[in-house]
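QA checklist item 7 of 12: single-chain prediction sanity check.
[x] sequence parsed
[x] length recorded as 235
[x] structure emitted
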Amino acid sequence: MFSVTEMRTFELFSVEHIATFLLFMAICFLLVSFRKGLKPYQQAIKWTLFSILLISEISHQIWVVATNQWGLEDLPIQLCSFSTFIAMYLFLKSNNKLFHLLFFIGFIPPILSMVTPEMHYSFPHYRFLKYFLHHAAIAWAVLYFIYYEGYRVPRKAILTSFLIANVIAAPIFFINILLDTNFFYLANPTETKTILSFFGSGIWYYINLELAALFVFWVTYIPMGMLLKREKVRA
């Protein structure tokens, strides 16, 4: 049996952390490389991902309430929650422009969150399992939309999605001031050691955050650009 104390000692790059991330990558590989063989199971994959995202959001609220830990910071307006709601909407209704935003905020950011997670609980605690499964499902959903439903993203969407993300972040910034929260990590870096910890403080934190976001958007688009180029050559 695992004691509560033992499960509150998450260790960065521990065996459990690395194994979980490798499992995530393996499933990414399967979804992409074996997509033709998995096509007959497309509906099952779709509703499995939808269910994981829905259950992740609901179960988190139930857990924090049941353990008397609910706070304003548990409101579902973090970046991963935005990605979750967009993905769930797209599972129900097609929308190309909405996918453009999901593509940029719902692939690399969740992966980076799994590499350096803001996590206190170790495996097999609920919070550990929920955190990694939730973030993994967001990235898997992006791959699903690209390889199973044929969504594509034009190059101009890099800038437009970056601007839309900033428009969304603007009211979140003031919500953080009003509620003393840290949604989108706009108030300050994470409490635990993550990539954001190296962004400095004050105005430099926001400058680095913007530059990093733009860089991530650009890097995210590289494989999509290669895919579109390959499809154009084949056509």
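[x] summary fact logged: The longest helix spans residues 203-234.
[ ] second reviewer sign-off
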